[in-house]
Design brief:
The chain is mainly alpha-helical. It folds into 3 domains: 26-255, no CATH class; 261-384, Serine Threonine Protein Phosphatase 5, Tetratricopeptide repeat, CATH 1.25.40; 398-485, no CATH class. Helices cover 69% and strands 3% of the residues. Strands 1-2-4-3 form a 4-stranded mixed beta sheet, with helices on both faces. α7 crosses α9 (173-181), α16 (299-315) packs antiparallel against α17 and α18 packs parallel to α20 (371-383). It is flat and about 75 Å long.
């Protein structure tokens, strides 16, 4: 496991690339990452929020493009690794790279960022751990320990940030515990991730001040001796050397362009993140109350407070409060196209949560290709009795995005509403495939095959043929998975 650590080498320092130095091939590393990812999908803290996912993925995609341009992301890794980001609703301030191109981001990290540049700094650092193949190189150094046992140690380290007892249950014996303690990256690897990550984020167009600001937050937390909310400080201690390097990078940032102006979009996404990661009734009421007192704040802060308050109103099932606050949000974001779009999407959520599916559908741009629009408009159409329209749009979406588990599940609901049982079961199976749960997928494919046989001549033969093919393909994946154990 790695954790977010945002430091950089001194300006002008000539730090050599460490080289690959790994005996683990790319395919094995990808499979190791998938094993960890399967467990993350099963974690109740894992969330699929189309709006927040889109925002994080926009940053992630820019960083990947920059890594390609700089030559850090090779064609082999680019085509073989997953390059997917999973969000967790935990309030701890953490992010971690997983072998094979998977990235985990806890909402607690988003909650403490003031700009998208700060979030980009964390993601760039973690991305660099993957592109430089630090996981596989570390495993090679650790006496060729079994990769799958190391995968279990990664999961144990993740569990430790939330429940030490659960983590200990995953670690059998002193040897395994020693391996867990060895998962920390070496100082050279951290410095390389700092250097490469800084180059990637600035190449992607993010302000270097974000790197420095995040470093300062980590430095301050280290001085306070870590109160448990910064789990990455235990695996990435703030050494004197790295603090000095960060201060040198700060001098570079101070000579760079002036700090960007208020970012309404980031403030709104932080507001969303805080509500999703603090769902208790008292917290939700606090967010709604803060929104009512937002008038004296600057525009970005007002947008963030109003967004959080309106979303909290939907969670509290108080449509009047949510509608009042989202109307203020729509007004204050007028003139900022990206912020205005997010305000409209939230207004649609408010309408949908209040039972007005028709209004929700009208507030979403039907021609927009973004995932939030696809999911929200499909939900609105489904609830307003237009299951056919919802299914048609979702069919197009999953054809282009077959890994979208939530879209497959929503498509299954749309098919069920149209009494298309065979297609509904297949969509459920594909949802499990997208989450790497191949056994559950096989069970659903078998149920679909049974239904197809019972349907006989009245059945959908094309769909039945697709199901047979997919069942064979997933059965092969399941056998490969079994061989890894």
């Amino acid at each position: 496991m790695t954790a977010a650590c945002v430091l950089a080498a001194p300006a002008g320092a000539q730090l050599p690339t460490l080289g690959d130095g790994s005996d683990m091939n790319v395919a094995t590393e990808r499979k190791l990452g998938e094993r960890v990812a399967r467990e993350l999908y099963r974690d109740p803290d894992y969330i699929d929020d189309p709006v927040l996912d889109e925002y994080v993925l926009e940053i992630w995609t820019r960083l990947l493009a920059a890594a390609r341009t700089r030559g850090e992301l090779t064609a082999e890794l680019d085509g073989s690794f997953a390059w997917q980001v999973l969000l967790g609703k935990d309030r701890v301030i953490n992010a971690f790279a997983v072998p094979g191109g998977w990235m985990g981001v806890q909402l607690g990290l988003i909650n403490v960022t003031a700009t998208r540049d700060e979030l980009a700094a964390v993601l760039a650092h973690e991305l660099s751990h993957v592109t430089q193949r630090h996981h596989s190189r570390l495993m090679t150094q650790q006496n060729q320990q079994a990769p799958w046992l190391i995968g279990a140690m990664i999961l144990a380290a993740l569990a430790a940030s939330k429940n030490p007892e659960a983590a200990n249950a995953m670690v059998a014996g002193g040897q395994a515990m020693a391996m867990q303690n060895q998962l920390n990256f070496s100082r050279d690897m951290e410095r390389e991730a700092d250097r490469v990550g800084f180059g990637v984020m600035t190449q992607a167009g993010f302000a270097p001040q974000g790197f420095v600001a995040m470093f300062e937050k980590l430095q301050q937390a280290a001085r306070l001796n870590d109160n448990g909310n910064f789990p990455y400080l235990r695996t990435h201690p703030m050494t004197t050397e790295r603090i000095a390097e960060g201060q040198s990078r700060q001098q570079l940032a101070e000579r760079a362009a002036a700090a960007p102006g208020p970012d309404l979009v980031h403030a709104m996404m932080v507001g969303r993140s805080r509500v999703l990661s603090n769902p208790g009734v008292d917290n939700l009421r606090a967010y709604a109350g803060e929104a009512d007192g937002a008038a004296g704040a600057d525009r970005a802060r007002q947008a963030g407070l109003l967004y959080a308050g309106a979303l909290a109103g939907t969670r509290l099932r108080e449509p009047a409060t949510a509608s009042r606050l989202v109307a203020k949000l729509v007004a204050i974001t007028s003139g900022d196209a990206r912020a205005s779009r997010l305000a409209s999407l939230l207004a649609a959520e408010v309408a949908l949560s209040g039972g007005d599916a028709a209004r929700a559908a009208s507030l979403v741009d039907a021609a927009a290709a973004g995932r939030p629009e696809v999911m929200l408009s499909s939900q609105a159409r489904l609830r307003s009795g237009r299951a056919g329209d919802a299914a048609q749009r979702l069919q197009t979406w999953v054809a282009l995005h077959p890994r979208d588990a939530e879209a497959w599940q929503l498509l299954a609901s749309a098919y069920t509403a149209q009494n298309q049982g065979l297609r509904a079961i297949r969509a459920e199976a594909e949802s499990h495939v997208a989450r790497l749960d191949y056994q559950a997928a096989i069970d659903r494919f078998k149920a679909a095959q049974d239904l197809a046989r019972k349907s006989g001549a009245a059945g959908d033969h094309i769909e039945a043929s697709i199901i047979d093919t997919r069942a064979r393909q997933v059965a092969l994946l399941l056998r490969e998975q079994a061989l890894e154990r």
